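Figure 3 (text version): structure tokens given as input.
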């Protein structure tokens, strides 16, 4: 993989970066995926378009603010560099927060329940993230720990970082695959009617807990995390998110054990993944295999225990 450029092509001497192209592609495909579900969810045509026009700019600004806030040392001596995002510097969690704020505006404007709008967007959000992570590949960022065993110096397990002349764990790829799996799972559950008859917002909450579980793990493998003191910000936020969803699901279930079971399984798996990501098991290849295994178990239990229905949505 040595020799990969982050510049796709130039127009009149101005470079066009792969990072921007891939992010744009992820946004477009995610929007197309969401818009295809508008009719099934009995929503007005162009609901997704209205959401995108408002939420995307807000998400972009929040993603940059989030990143700069925790990397202020890099920008404080050159304030104008804050506005240069061509080479990266967008935090996904900041984008999700911005998108949620934009969704509030759209929901009020179109007189929609916020949970319904969030359910429309959630699966597509995971798809967009899966695609967008490949921008990190071309930017040579979001990679994991150094690989010292030459037997593991190959893609997709590792990625060669030219600036360092070293192979590192391909953390961006792990997250991309994980987000793709989340999208497939949620899309399948919706298609099979497993969310039909459940309360608005359940699809989004499942996205939130599965994505948070992923970040708890992959963030622990990265070497370029954003920190607040000695705490990895994304891991802390993920843990808070899991706890919040746990409380919401418990309250919504009416304290019935059969409704709590899928979340309890996902929560247990997430806890195991966090435990592993802190290095209790030191051999990275085994650790990565275990991370994937526990996540697949959580997804399977979710799929098997979510309510069935003969209709696709209601």
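Below: residues designed for each position.
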């Amino acid at each position: 993989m040595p020799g990969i450029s982050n510049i796709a092509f130039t127009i009149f001497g101005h470079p066009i970066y792969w990072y921007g192209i891939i992010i744009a592609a992820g946004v477009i495909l995610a929007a197309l995926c969401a818009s295809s579900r508008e009719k099934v969810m009995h929503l007005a045509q162009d609901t997704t378009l209205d959401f995108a026009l408002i939420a995307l700019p807000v998400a972009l600004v929040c993603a940059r603010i989030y990143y700069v806030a925790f990397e202020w040392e890099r920008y404080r001596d050159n304030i104008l560099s804050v506005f240069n995002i061509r080479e990266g510097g967008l935090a996904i969690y900041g984008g999700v927060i911005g998108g949620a704020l934009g969704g509030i505006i759209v929901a009020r404007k179109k007189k929609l329940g916020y949970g319904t709008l969030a359910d429309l967007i959630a699966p597509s959000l995971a798809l967009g993230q899966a695609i967008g992570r490949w921008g990190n590949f071309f930017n040579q960022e979001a990679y994991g720990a150094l690989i010292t065993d030459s037997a593991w110096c190959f893609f997709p397990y590792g990625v060669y970082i030219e600036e360092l002349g070293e192979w590192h764990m391909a953390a961006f790829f792990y997250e991309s695959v994980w987000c793709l799996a989340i999208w497939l799972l949620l899309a399948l559950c919706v298609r099979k009617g497993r969310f039909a008859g459940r309360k608005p917002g359940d699809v989004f909450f499942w996205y939130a807990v599965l994505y948070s579980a992923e970040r708890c793990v992959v963030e622990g493998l990265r070497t370029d995390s954003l920190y607040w003191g000695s705490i990895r910000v994304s891991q802390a936020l993920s843990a808070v998110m899991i706890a919040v969803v746990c409380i919401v699901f418990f309250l919504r279930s009416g304290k019935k054990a059969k409704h709590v079971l899928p979340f309890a399984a996902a929560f247990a798996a997430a806890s195991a993944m966090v435990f592993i990501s802190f290095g209790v098991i030191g051999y990275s290849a085994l650790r990565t295999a275990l991370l994937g295994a526990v996540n697949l178990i959580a997804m399977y239990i979710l799929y098997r225990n979510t309510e069935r229905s003969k209709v696709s949505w209601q």
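Residues 15-139+152-305 form one domain.
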